[in-house]
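User: Here's a chain of 646 residues. Predict its fold as tokens.
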Amino acid sequence: MKLSRQLVVIQSVIIALLVIGYAWLSLLNIRQLTIQELVNQSNTSVQYLVAPIQQAVIEGNEAAYKSKIDTYYDSGNYSRISLFGNDDLMPRLYERNDLDQTAQVPIWFIKLFPVDPIIGKKEIYQGLDRLAYLEVQIHPFAFYQFVWKQFVDIIVVTVFVALVAWALGFALINIVLQPIIAVKRQAAAVTNKHYPQITKHSGIAEFEQLIEVHNTMTNQVKALFSQQQKQLDSLKESLYHEASSGLPNREYFQLTLSDFLNRKNERLMGGLVMIHLHDITKLRHEESFSAYQEVVEYVIKVVERVTGMGKNAPLFQLNEQDFALLLLHQGTSEILEYSKLIVRQLEDCEALNQLGGCYLGASEILEQDTPQSITTRTDEALKHAKKADKRFYMDKSSGESNSNALFKSKEELIHAINKARIEFFVQPVVDPVSNEKLFTELYTKLSVDEVTLSLPQLLILAEKYEVTENLDKKILLEVQKHFQLGALNGKISINVSAFSFHSVAFQTWLFAWLSEEPDVAKSIIMEFDEIDLAHTTQAREISYKLANNGVELAIDHFGRGSSSLSRFSDMKLHWLKIDSRYIQKDLTNTNRDYLKMICELVDKLGVKAIIPNIETDEQVTLAQEVGCAGIQGFKIAKPVSIFEQI
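Assistant: Prediction complete.
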């Protein structure tokens, strides 16, 4: 049956009206949001600029405030920065402007979306007397360029969507679509091991034949799958477990991995971790089987303690010295965290350490992975770890979101870090008794292409691609800039990745930078993750070099793993942050005794203990009783943007 001409016209008019209306509303919304962003930028800019020039205006230091205005004007997107005096006629003390710059878009487009001058204003006072008046005007050309690009993109998209919608509407009305949909649903059901028969008839001979063929094929596939399932069940019956550990063996591992990767519609994100016990066969063959068994049982307990080792984290023994851990429902951050914790806790096994310890290789599961490809990549990661004498190494392929991953390569991540916009949030650390501020902790947020990421989110990817030094360098230079502009002052703490110090180039840059900026260095406390620092070579030498440059060191998350103060006793430390789980759990005597013991021990080492995440009066009282040096948390103050303090 053919479509009538009237139906085609009605369908086309409706689609055109809907698409054009959507495009226009989208443009208006983009315009409003962009103008609001420019208004916020102008207000923030004038607030940010007042602080550096206020003292110069008060002192009448013309050269100083002109220099600061020039620096700010040259570094931003401003059409005019004007400083007026306080006389009745408001004389212009100084001005930089470029009001003739054009947006390089069609004139009619500018007339279609007129924008009034966007000006941020701020008065400068000395006491109650107004001394001057500052105006910062934002260039509108950036607005027009952005909205013009959006306008072009929306036109292209709307035309494309209109054509697609018209074509789909035309096809959906056609009766030919019905038998095709039926066959498609049948095929989808077969992939999920359901075998329905198509019972509806189209009345068209060719499609009747197609339906009959598919029904016959479905019955044959059903018989084939049933036979395969019986063979699989029989094979599983014959599978055995390793006698030394009770774990499923290599054969069962291959079956489990194949079954998981072959279920395309049920594929979950996850990863594979290979654990290699170096020279463990010597223990079994040269000493005793029971000694070997003890080490294997220790490995199992560690994996169970870290991952739970259940349905979503099965552990397999591949041979005498290799184990495979399959992590399901886990992303990049969990795979990295679990692997580092396992390595950290296996280092406490004395028998294993005497034989050379263990190595871990990990890889994320990708969309097109086969059992061979995922095991090959993980084996290569394990070989790299052993060759580079690293306890843990993760393959660089992106898998957590696959095609939707924000950064799919090392180069993309470095580019994003270089162009990211950084915003700091501050939270004080105070003495639990006197409530005197000890220092301020900085939390970092980065905006990349309108996407806001916290530092832990970006740090996970930076560790995976081994570019933490790029991220840390970016953040430290931003800290320096804030100090120079007066936005930061006093002692501050900032998280730095211990992995960055694996790079000789980063160490060279850092110590040269600290030497050039001694005032900034003396104001910084560098916080390192306990597990990461424990696996950093030359950690002791680095700690003393930092201390010699005036930088104080802090250990973060102490107690998260199987912590040992002996690992850090020979390092130059100043602060130690106890993991928050000991304060967030029920305040039992065990937790109280642990906290008191840690505070007393580190005090004898000349290190000050901090308890974070304080949220209640009861927790404050506990912190006072155990004798910690400092506390922080929502009970003291919530983190606020640094711009709110200016």
